[in-house]
Every structure is written in C-alpha cells, then in structure tokens.
Amino acid sequence: xxxxxxxxxxxxxxxxxxxxxxxxxxxxxxxxxxxxxxxxxxxxxxxxxxxxxxxxxxxxxxxxxxxxxxxxxxxxxxxxxxxxxxxxxxxxxxxxxxxxxxxxxxxxxxxxxxxxxxxxxxxxxxxxxxxxxxxxxxxxxxxxxxxxxxxxxxxxxxxxxxxxxxxxxxxxxxxxxxxxxxxxxxxxxxxxxxxxxxxxxxxxxxxxxxxxxxxxxxxxxxxxxxxxxxxxxxxxxxxxxxxxxxxxxxxxxxxxxxxxxxxxxxxxxxxxxxxxxxxxxxxxxxxxxxxxxxxxxxxxxxxxxxxxxxxxxxxxxxxxxxxx
Length: 324
Known about the structure:
The protein is an alpha+beta fold.
C-alpha cells in the first residue's frame, strides 16, 4: 500500500523575509547606481564608475531574486503539482552569475589600470559615497545571516554572498581613495586582482550549490538518517527503511517504507502511514512525503511487501498458462 502526499502547500517561513530583504537591497542599489554614476560624471573617477556598475548589476539580480522568491511561495496547482519551490534556487543562480560577472569586471578593470598606469585625482566627496555603500551592504549581510533558517534558504544565502562581495569591493574603493591621496594611485588595482578572483570563486560556488538543488540531489546522509530515526519512533511503526529523499528546489521530497504489524486492519495500517506522512511534512525543510507500507507477518517471521515499487505484482494465472 502506498500513501501519497496530500496536495502540496508552501512550507516556507523564511520566504517573506527573503523577498522583503531582496526588494530593500534592490531599492538601495538603485539609489547608489544613480548617485555613483553622477559622481563618475562629475569627477571622472573609474572607481565611482565601477561601483555604479556594480550597484546596477545588484539591482537587476536582486529584483530577479525577489520575484523568484515570490513565485516559490505559490501553492501547487494543476500545471505544477509539486509546487514552485525550484524558483528560489533559480533566482539564487542568477545572483551567482552576476557575482561571476562582477568578479570578472573587477579583475579586468584592475589589469587595465595596471597596464595604463594613469593616475587619478581623488575627489573628497566620493569617500562618503563609498563608505555609505559599504555600511549599507554590511547591514544587508548581517540581516541575511541573522534571519532564522538563513542556512537553508538559497535566497538568503545568495543575498549574504552578494552583500559580502559588495562590502569587499566598497572597502577596496575606500582603500584606493586613500592610496591615491597618499601618492599610490595604483594600489587599489593591485589589491583588486586577488579580490576579483575571490569574488569570481564565490559566484562559482554559489552557482554549483544551486545547480545541485535544481538537479534533485539527495540531502546529506546525516539528514537522511535523522529522518529515518524520526519515522522509526512514530506510533505503530515497527521499522523504517529505504528512505529516499531529494531536493525539489529548496525543499525536500521524501519517500519511505514503514513496517507495520500484520494484525492491523487495512484502515489501521493506512492511519499509521498517514501519521507518518503528516509528521514528516511538518519538518521545515520538507515539502512532500509519500509512505509505502510493508507488513510484518509474525507467523512467518518475515516482512511482506505486498506492493513493491521495483517488482510487478504476482500473476494470478495458472502455472501452465504462465509457462505458455
């Protein structure tokens, strides 16, 4: 007997916070884009131009992230019977791509500055802009990391990585400003090369993590063992085995075999399996669970799997007909 999951609802207590933080960060990035482009136009500073371009990329990427988080919260429907949870890692993947682009552009700009060896005259009022952006993104990073469940949400992890990268580039801009004032106009370009490699690597890592989720990979072995022990301790369950779990976007789909006493009626066995399903789906990271019932026959001292997933049902034809 197989107890299938109920119509899927969204079990995402962190989605609202992730979407709100994404929209707030996108709005702040839009403001910094305008202000820093004006700063570049008035001063001719390449640092201001690089920071403006970075903010523009942030605004686009985080706008996409906020939209995908909203889509991920849409309940299951006829066209998407398992819900829309893959939308969130898709948004995080877009953010990862933009992080890679940022790393490439920072490195390209740094190498170009080193080859050109053209000094620039720092304008005093640029410093507060660079500092304000660093403080703003530091606040976003802290908010993303301190939100409960941030380690399980692709959107919050993407926000944290993006904010951390921007804090680093903004501090580099501040350092470049003071280096130029001290007579070392190319010091920011020298420091930008390893920073660009680090940002590019963080983008690749974030992309790999979210591709892993989108491809339906299994959760860590430790989490699978925790779920197995949880099922084994539920009322009416003699044992649990063959637990299989894989990601549906940011959430898990679980299928498990439970062993029940053969003395139970069909209704009682179904109720035990239904209790297992409800308890597993109450877990924060699980969106759906199906339960297969195996029966233990004490008289035969074995477990009978009457409806196996990997074998056809036994034939009811006479033996001579089966041979023909």
